User: Fold these one by one.
Assistant:
Number 1:
Amino acid sequence: MSEKKSPLLVVFLTVMIDLIGFGIIVPILPLYAESFGASGLKIGLLMGIFSLMQLIFLPWWGRLSDRIGRRPVFLISITGNALSLLMCGFATHYWALFAARMFAGIFSSNISVANAYVADCTAPEDRARGMGKIGAARGIGFVLGPVFGGILVQWGASAPFFGAAALAAFNLLSAARFLKESLPVRGEDFQREERSRRRMYRLVNSISGLKPLILMGIVQIVAFSMLEMSFVLFTERRLDLSAAEAGTVAAALFVYLGVVIALIQGGLIGRLTRAYGERQLVLVGLSLVSVGMLSITQTPQGSLLALLLFVGIVAMGQSLVSPSLSSLLSRATPGEHQGAVFGFYQSGLALARTIGPPVAGVLFDVHENGPYLVGGVLMCLALVGAAGVFRGSVRTVGASV
């Protein structure tokens, strides 16, 4: 047992450091783009291009990790992230920032590879807990990252990007030293078999139970990414803040979100899964997110307390949905295809994040409530779809293969 805990701790720390860097720039990026004269649509496109590149490249990274191992793909991803952050820091106009985020999306594969790493190192019944730890790493990133970003921005608008790049460089050195390979050595026959397989969608189509789970994940991420894109701008407008004040308050709100996510995914998800099962947690989580997003539109002008309550409901729901869906997906996938399937799944989520932010930008330019109304309705549709899917059965490898 101790042999399995050690590599999971290392990958947890690797992802956590990576997400701290991400958390440093998340509250700053919309305001940074706004300083270059970007509209809501342009800010949405800036966030969407990152996800579009993930959509294109994540399946390839996932399959590459099945072939050459998780560790080298981790190291390549961290290197690309560090370079993209430097590009952001040196940007002098919107299109340079756009190019930097495009580059970042190409090399962003850590979460899908981390999920495959967890699947390599855990038994099926422990997957939800393992996936929850990856989610907790994200939560901690959103706790610590905005705090560091708020401190660094005092030295200039580009300082958070240089700070995040330095953190990524440290992460690269530590991962190169401590992160071990989790994938068993494959023979030449496996390599030839992998090269001769049909396209990824045929692999996914051949595994029973994957398609509805992937579709469910895509729909709910479209909605959630609409919140992510517009949240800082919504806070600025609804709470009657200046741009500088909005950055500070938004950073504090992201810390709050991170604490909620870390508490649930890091400490409670294992017990909740054992008590209620992944399916029930998905249904409850989707319900909470839909209620929270629709409630955000009712935030009174200037009421930070109401915004804290409604956003907290969204965070609780998303904390249940994400690891539970990943666990169901992993349990339905044969071990030798974990990296490929998670790469495909993350590319589906990237498609969702490509669609969501530009749509949210257009809706926000019309009215600040637009992204949350449409997002809440989408979550309701995902809930109805999930209830229908779970009336049937999601096959698990241990039980059905």
Note: Residues 1-5, 187-198, 396-401 have pLDDT under 50 and may be disordered.
Number 2:
Amino acid sequence: MSQRIVQVDAFTDRPFAGNPAAVCILESPREDAWMQAVAMEMNLAETAFLVPEGEGYRLRWFTPAVEVDLCGHATLASAHVLWEDGHLSTDAPAIFQSRSGRLSATWRDGWITLDFPVKLAERSVDPTPVAKALGVPVSVAWANRFDILAEVESEAVLRSIRPDFNLVNAIPVRGLIVTTRSDQPGIDFASRFFAPQVGVNEDPVTGSAHCFLGPYWSEKLGKTEMVGYQASRRGGLVRVRLEGDRAMLGGQAVTVFRGELIETAI
């Protein structure tokens, strides 16, 4: 039995930029071990697996090492494949059930908007170990149940970071978000995301991190609509609009290749 698989670059309008994700639309559920093996084989930040369920799809995300609770770019990639391959009309929303509850995506004029939960800062944390792991000064650090968010002085400092991943890995969170005000016209803030604990040293563009970045910068800037740039080597733009306890994350996506998994048993 073979399985179709599609690779999509998310949060970009051109190939070989943004964040690549693999998408498998399954006819029926598969074993966790099989999905983890496929994700390890694809060796991308995330591989998404979708199974029809109720009004939409059950959606799960795997890094090469573990299953994760929330992933923005692979959700955006999944919606893109559902519309592009004719599983849904672009007039219809993509509805997902996930470990983080009900998620949805809509398409308009080439942009996909994800409806995700806001992730607020829950407590301040000592910035000293974070600064040591990053190798740059950190002005403030906050945590929620997923990640730590650390602010640095400038975009030049942000781009200069070369983390000690052993020290980052010792910080007991999913990932470390580093952010600053952007000095680029039309961009409100910039960020990078490091997550060696889940097998991804640096994620190119992290939709779920913007569920934390959005409310953080909204309070500082006095805005509910913003544009974030993730300053990884591949780079990507994320539009953020806050609506109560929801973060609307906008991005584009490009299919890079379609393939077939020939051997699907382990």
Note: The longest helix spans residues 72-84.
Number 3:
Amino acid sequence: MPRVTLICNSFPPETGGAPGRIYQLAKLLQENGYAVRVISAMPNYPLGAIFPAYRGRLVVNEEVEGIRVKRIIVYPSNSKKLFPRALSMLSHVLSLWLLAFPGMLFRRSDVAIVSSPPLLAAHTGLLLAKLTSKKVLLNVSDIWPLSAVEMGAISKGGHFRFLHWIEKRMYRLADGFMGQSEEIIRHIRQLSKKEKPAFLYRNLQPGLNANVLEVPATGSEKKIIYAGLLGHAQGVLHICQTVNFKALGARLFIYGNGPERKAIAALAAAHPEKGIVVCDTLTQAELSRQMHEFDAALIPLKYPIAGAVPSKLFMAIAHRLPVLFCAGGEGAEMVRAYGLGWVSEPGDKAGLSENISAMAAQDVAGQKALRERVGKAAMEKFDINRQGSAFLQFLRNFQ
């Protein structure tokens, strides 16, 4: 039985695009004859604090639905400040060397898949994988450090140059690549010195029921869902501050956690006339069962980020839900190309408001036609099972 080690920063019970994608990948491999082991940090995302069940321990070895998971201690932080974030990354690097490396030497892998970012931890994981595995795939979900510059986290100075050197070194060390967008794959190929195998592995999601296309009976007021991280990059707080959903004929239901949740909840409580409802956090399965009750999904990014295609887009597609896409890049091109909903630029309050009004004004026939287009794209272009089969063939050739 071939052995695969997945080295990542987050894994369920953490929520969000990254842990969900790694979990789906681990299950795909396990169900197709691979012995899978995951090495990850202690659960702390997106709260910036280690989950209660894991506190006070250096290492936790457990099984998650038959997948062997080794969790190692890390100093958690979701701060915007450079020093706490750097300290968190360095603690993960140290834990990888001291707590993960000995076990990797003892149980070598046929293939290791290392996820980036965070960049320093990914670089360390790549070095350890090169020492303990026959082949190494680098899984790139964001183009760091360029993304950090675009979000305003760092400037193009010495820190950027150091991280950019780390990035290029990882591309040279890896035997092959996975990228979550076509832009990421192009970026890697431009910086990589050699032609290496690469696979476009989008953050596709399984739908609860592929045939759910009926329009929900929401009356005159349309229901919009935001489900995901409430962080700085998404800018949901800014949208809540500047957009009056109720005046546009809609209500926004927010499911998720993160640094902005408290401020959003306070705003919603102080201004009920804005039509914002902050809901209890749900599991992925619970959320899937409720998706069909909504008329559209809100998918924002505060800044244009190179290579970024929000995982929430694929969640909406999988559940045949039209989108209000407030971002640019490859995701916006996909929404326009396949007719998945409405697009406005990041931070464009007027454009988003116009799109919400257009969504709210749709009649039943228009809503059904839009859901049918989303359903067609889900089956023909963004099917998770088809992607899984293609990746398994890629991996067999890669080994």
Note: The mean pLDDT is 88.
Number 4:
Amino acid sequence: MNIIRGIACCAVWTSMVFAQDVISAKSGLIHYFEGVVTLDGSEVVKKNSEFTSMKEGSELRTGLGRAEVLLAPGVFLRVAENSALKLVSNDLLDTRLALTSGSILLEIGEIEKNQALTLMVGEAKIEFNRRGLFRIDANPAQVAVHDGSAVAVAGGQTLTVKEGKLTPLTGVLATTKFDKEEGDAFYRWASRRSGYIASANLTAAKRVYDQGSSFGFSNWVYNPYFGMFTFIPLHGMYRSPFGYSYYSPNTIAGYYYRPVYNPMPVGNGGGGWNPPPISDSRGMGDMGGRGGYSGGAMAAPPPPAASAPAAPASDGRGASSSSGGRGGAGGR
């Protein structure tokens, strides 16, 4: 199945599952933001039932705020405060960005052999071809690899940067160790965002399974209970570097929702079928504080009750047109 046909099939599948309009499949959907964020000089505002999408050549700037942008399926871009980022190409198979100031965290849950993902920082560029978690700073220009590996190219030099190492992007490229477990307020915020989206995966993947739908690629899928998109891998499970899990429809049905026989008495009866227990430890924090979900049988918080249609107030962006496509979400 070619890419165009795949986009069409996934778009139909998404609209069937969530009964929403189909939107274009491009990198650059502004999925969440807080504080002061502008796109091409105009302040991004929250609108019910809408998400703003970056176009090729668009520049996203944060003041005292942060933003989360969805690229190709499974690629999460999180932008720190006082940062500027340009989307050079929004093609899902050849996404290119340029960081001109500030910092970003790039979480890559899935990338295929025929995909290219490139970030420019000044005259240097970083090529990503593996899963992982990467911190890139513009001043001083450097890349730090928390998980996975990346290829830095600058001044005629090429260097593979592996987990736990960082390299400057000016002068001589050379790696040094850093403590990949030590994060700042921005890192902790990104971890919380990963937890929220992983939580939305549980009910979204189960709903896809219950609909009997099938698709040929991993996808961004809209979860109306949370008012956000979530990542659903095609097969198996993706476990993020932050410790949260994203399940495919078959995996969620076969593992998480599969009844577990309990030989111990249940109530007034004997043994019975019970779902696996879930523990939920939550800590909330503001932009500068610690917080996030931790623990739990699935390393993610449980889904909301079916009677609770609204997303948490801190993360709800309202409903939006569903994504489909080669897995991408984009705007009109």
Note: Residues 186-294 form one domain.
